[in-house]
Amino acid sequence: MDDGITKAIETLKEHKKKAALGGGLEEIDRQHAKGKLTARERIDLLLDPGTFVELGMLGATKEDASNEIYGDGIIAGFGKIEGRLIGIFSQDYTVWRGSFGEVHRLKMNNVMDKARELGVPMICLWDGSGGRLELNSYINPAHYSTFKRFAKNSGRIPQISAMLGPSPGNGAYGPAMTDFIFLVDGLSYVFATGPKGTKTEVGEDISKEALGGAKVHCQKSGLGDDRFKTEEACLAAIRRLLSFLPASHEEFPPDGNPSDTPPRINRKLNGLVPSDSRKPYDMLKIVDQIVDDGDFFEIKPEFAKNIITGFGRLQGRVVGILANQPLFMAGSLTIDASVKASRFVRFADCFNIPLLMLVDTTGYLPGSQQEHNGLLRHGAKLPFAIAESTVPKVAVLIRKAYGGAKPAMGIDKDLGVHIVYAWPVGESAVMGAKATVKVLYKDEIKNARDPEAFFEERVAAFKESSSPYVMAHSTFIDDVIEPAETRGKLIDAFEILLLNRKIPKDKTNHGNIPL
User: Fold this and answer.
1) What's the CATH code of the domain at 353?
2) Is the peptide bond before 263 cis (omega within 30 degrees of 0)?
3) Does residue 393 carry a pLDDT above 70?
4) What is the pLDDT at residue 174?
């Protein structure tokens, strides 16, 4: 071989060897000492072995290039998860603390643009210090519009973020524009302004954990979709979530192997719900007995716990599940629950995921706090999302649905719900029977010879008028079913609705705006 070629190849190998080390061995050791994986280790854990194709490996600032430090704080490219192509970037804290410089943004924008063009999901692994403050960090405005990429990709390809270190400022708003955000306890810190800036600007002394840790964002702010004890568990959850999602808005979610577990006729469902509408029970137990193999991927399990959102399968077909949770606030719809549910419905509609609604709610939560904080403004987002969606929708009235929560939860075929079932204990009305009687017959109850008997008589009459049989007689619902039949009925319903499934030609492509 020509000596010049041999020397050039050796020089190339040396440059790439240094690029693979990011900021160098000492910086890698510092990363490990914090209990954190490196950017490349994360990619290796997430992707199928040997599938990563890196773009821009030798990208660098002029200063870094002269010192043979490459990457500018980010690794980007494409790889496969369970054989399916995905785009990915992983911020590298060992170089410029993973901050946003010009080359950093160019690499990030490049892979996001290509992911959209190819129609494949985008995985974003965040671990950085936000915008770069150093003097050489000037960024050409033409290269700055990372946020524009998130917005353009929204509703077209799934975008999933994992917060694997600090992510302040621009590094916080970016992930907030993606569809799902996972965090790790003790590692994830996400905030618009960090503790030092908060102390300086408003005089509040607060730790980074209390300000923007994983628990805060999964329980209070609602930014996080789930949190995990380790990075490994977080990355495994991304792989599992992707198994329920299509590659883009032009595809359907991937079918799994049909399962007969639980059985189509599942007697366990007959004993899970008390007939007394005031008694709580765990709706997740019903979900577990409906979906294939009890395999349910819950979204935001710690936030707005009065409503459940997540993905499961019925005889192999992916469905998005929206369900009231009577264990919390009697399954009522609050501001947080409405926003959580609305964004989930809009995501499902973006990506052609059919919706199943399991309904047991007292209605929208009353009270001045909810009203003054915008219950009507935020609560309206859910029926709007249901009415706007074009995917197949099936609702089951498990026990009760009162007031405006009826259409919001799909007990209203006029909003585009295709099939509605009810269990025999189901009831639907403007208000519960007892509350209605107290309002309408206040004086009569006082003046009755036997107030208690009069009250119970009126309540019985209203319960009769709101029974599932009255709804079935008027075809307001399609059938009253035994609880044990539910799984089989739902499998049949979605089989009908998804027969010869096609994406509607008139489907309006909308983004999944952070509601």
Assistant:
1) 3.90.226.10
2) no
3) yes
4) 94
